[in-house]
Amino acid sequence: MKLKEGSFLWYLYLDKLYCLLSVRNVKVLVEYFHLLDVHHNNTLNDVLFYHFLRHVTKWNRSQITIVFNMLDWKAVGEIGFDQFYMLVCILLAQQNHLEEQFIFRHSRPVFELLDLEGQLRIGPENFHMYNFLFNIRNQELRELYHDFDITGDRYLNYKEFKLFTIFTWDKYQERQKAKKEKEEEKRKENEEKALFKKKRLSQINVSLSLI
Amino acid sequence: MEEKPFDASLGSPGSKISSPDTEVRNLWTEATLSQSKLNVPNACEDTDLEGSSVSSKTPHQRYNGKAGHDLNSGSLAWDDGDDQDNFKQEELDDHDHSLLELELRQGSSQGSHLEERDVDSKTESEISSSESLLNISNYAAHEAYWVEQQNRLPLPLMELMENEVLEILTEALQSYRSAIGWDHFLTKQLRESVKGLKRRQSKRLHL
């Protein structure tokens, strides 16, 4: 999912360590929220919320409805600023490929969002439903239930979910490290090639000058 | 779900947001009042009072005016309030530092004048006191100016936000019209907001 380029949210950014907005960004977001809050309730109803997400993302109606029901944790039919902030952080985490870090840093809130029925456990259907939000791939989902369902009840409680986030975060860091090392190797290879070419050229020039 | 994941809150729905404009206006009023004061010791006291009132107002002024909109504690709950504490502390430190500078400057200017010329000490002190009075009034006016500036968002950002919100609300208005009709009070409220944004947009375009 990519945010619409040039849109207001596109200019915001998360702190890369804690995956949260800075104070300045929050201030700006508050103003934006108040502009959208046309009925002066400090909330957005489902229609305003739908049009907002349609404007800034490429999600379809059913995805937007899923997100609305997920965030409307008080079931009042409206979204307050807390939930709006949460949504913006999730969108920005997706935009900047920080999903693993976001879930690691905020495992409790994410768990509570996924636990739609308040059973203090989440099943594979919860993950499937919110796959487009947190970008958890099917392969990872299978590993998740295979490796972390310690109790064996085909559901993850919070502790098991937390272990999963730690594991995913470690894997992500290893992937990043491997990627950096690969890039470094490639760069060195290119430099060596360029140096070798230079040497050859200079040798050819020397031999030509001798002739 | 028993617990709220995030604890940011703008207060209960339906409560009004107080404008920071009234508090900034108070600052400007205090700044102009300080210009009318002629007595140097009194002016110093006034500066201190203004400084303390500004420092107590500014952190609240930044996000909200009254209770019920505790955005500061809420939005920074995940940061453990570090940003806000640092921000508040920095504001107070900056303000105290600038007040201290002013008083030192005042003291040193007075002190240097008295040491150099004993004969014209009276006229010298009068000049320095009027200078310091000007400095105080300028400082107070500048303080209010900077506080006002810091509360405003940059104009290009406001423009971007308003243009985007206008597009969103225009589409939402169509949905309102088709779902609840043109005469419903919610549709009217939305229509008013859209009109207001369009008016602001046309003002900007014509400037």
From TrEMBL, chain A:
Domain EF-hand: 136-171
Coiled coil ranges: 171-200
Keywords from the named record: Coiled coil
Keyword 4Fe-4S recorded: no
GO molecular function per UniProt: calcium ion binding; calcium ion sensor activity
Record's protein name: EF-hand calcium binding domain 9
Assigned GO CC terms: cytoplasm; sperm principal piece
Gene3D superfamilies associated with the record: EF-hand
